[in-house]
Amino acid sequence: MTATSNDREQLRPGLWATVNDRYPGSMITKSDLVPLAGLEKPLAQSRLTFVSTAGVQPKGTLPFDVAHPVGDYSFRRVSSTAAPADLEIHQLKYPTAGANRDLNVIFPIDRLRELVEEGVIGGLTPDFFSFIGYNMDPERLERTLAEEIAEAVVADGAEAALLAPA
Amino acid sequence: MSLQYLTDAVASDDREVLIRYVRLHLGDGDEARGRQEIDKAWIEALKPLLALPPADREFIHDTLATKDPATLAHLFFDLHFYLVKRSGEWIHDGNL
């Protein structure tokens, strides 16, 4: 019989119950509707970028600040032509064992290149964008990190963005 | 927001709120585990000093004398994770 997710022990029972105790009011709320941006042309003709909270970064660059109690509000550019072997993960808050065996399970850089070769995606931006999800000040996250990444994505000529939380 | 919550706790000297936040951070969302992690870090800090090995006290003195409080506080958090990693019992999922 094949194991399913229901068969497995929950890794962190009660984790979500602590969120509101731990970070009261920390959930991002929006009073204004932010409409989804539609594709202006088919995906097969669009240049895609990838934005990830997985904490992936090129080896040899300053590790993300995983020790800081309020989080790290910086991001790293990751070349879309990088080999997974030239990348590493600095992150404490999600299981990385699988990703350390195959980075594509959390940061599908090879898969995206394959989709370009197959014509599913028109192309990739020169860089992808990576940061860590442990950021306890959502206002700062939005005001700085999100806006900086958005500006960089636009400057790189992205026509579509794949966002992947870790 | 959470940062305001902590800032308010500092202003009102609500130490329970502040230490709970730290324990939850160091315990990856588990307050009791965070308390154990703090104890573990102090034990790991004590162990290498029992034999009274030579230490670079000049470095320590200069660092404490010249670095700003935020940098030193940041270093304190980094040292915590360094020490618990040295213990060989790593509860966190990822890497420093």
Pick out its properties.
heterodimer, A: 166 residues, alpha/beta, five-stranded mixed β-sheet, two-stranded antiparallel ribbon, 7 strands, disordered N terminus, B: 96 residues, mainly alpha
Helical content of chain B stands at: 55-70%
**What is the approximate shape of chain B?**
globular
| Sequence stretches where pLDDT stays below 50 over 5 or more residues of chain A | 1-8
Largest sheet of chain A, if any? 5 strands, mixed
**Overall 3D geometry of chain A?**
globular
Order of helices and strands of chain B: HHHHH
What's the oligomerization state? Answer: heterodimer
What is the residue-averaged pLDDT of chain B? 92
Topology:
The complex is a heterodimer of chains A (166) and B (96).
Chain A: H1 15-22, E1 47-52, E2 56-58, E3 76-79, E4 87-89, H2 97-101, H3 109-117, E5 123-124, E6 127-130, H4 138-155, E7 160-164
Parallel strand pairs in A: 1-5, 1-6, 1-7
Antiparallel strand pairs in A: 2-4, 3-6
Chain B: H1 2-11, H2 15-26, H3 31-46, H4 57-66, H5 69-86
How would you describe what is shown here?
The complex is a heterodimer of chains A (about 170) and B (about 100). With about 170 residues, chain A is an alpha/beta fold. Chain A has a domain at about 55-165. Chain A contains four helices and seven strands; from the N terminus they run αββββααββαβ. In chain A, strands 1, 3, 5, 6 and 7 form a five-stranded mixed beta sheet that branches. In chain A, strands 2-4 form a two-stranded antiparallel sheet. Chain B has one domain (about 1-85). Chain B has helices at about 1-10, 15-25, 30-45, 55-65, 70-85. In chain B, helix 3 crosses helix 5 (about 70-85). The two termini of chain B are about 25 Å apart. Chains A and B meet through helix 1 and helix 4 of A and helix 1, helix 2 and helix 5 of B.
Outline of this structure?
The complex is a heterodimer of chains A (166) and B (96). With 166 residues, chain A is α/β, with parallel strands linked by helices.
